[in-house]
Write a structure and sequence with these properties.
This protein is mainly alpha-helical. It is elongated, with a radius of gyration of 15 Å. β1 and β2 form a beta hairpin. Helices cover 32% and strands 7% of the residues. The longest helix has 16 residues. It is built from 2 helices and 2 strands, in the order ββαα.
Length: 85
């Protein structure tokens, strides 16, 4: 029996390869496909950008505001990039 691809969509080109990590992925609603990023890489990019733009008072690794931003996107929300709320 031939192997069936994991991702099958109703439109052509429904999947793409993440430019950052190489994962085969598809759009999840954050418009990440326009940047050729998977959801995880896009949320990491949002948090990294927010950390830089808003000068979070913590080291980048382990920043509680960045963790809240990532958790918010993972929960399907659009958190404030300055506070993480």
């Amino acid at each position: 029996m031939p192997r069936v691809a994991k991702f099958q969509g109703g439109r052509a080109g429904a999947t793409y390869t993440c430019h950052a990590c190489g994962k085969q992925t598809r759009e999840t609603g954050l418009e990440e496909s326009g940047l050729d990023l998977c959801r995880k890489c896009l949320t990491m990019a949002y948090a990294d950008n927010a950390h830089s733009d808003y000068g979070h008072k913590f080291e980048r690794d382990g920043c509680p505001i960045c963790r809240k931003i990532i958790a918010g996107y993972d929960a399907g929300q659009y958190p404030d990039h300055e506070t993480g709320d």
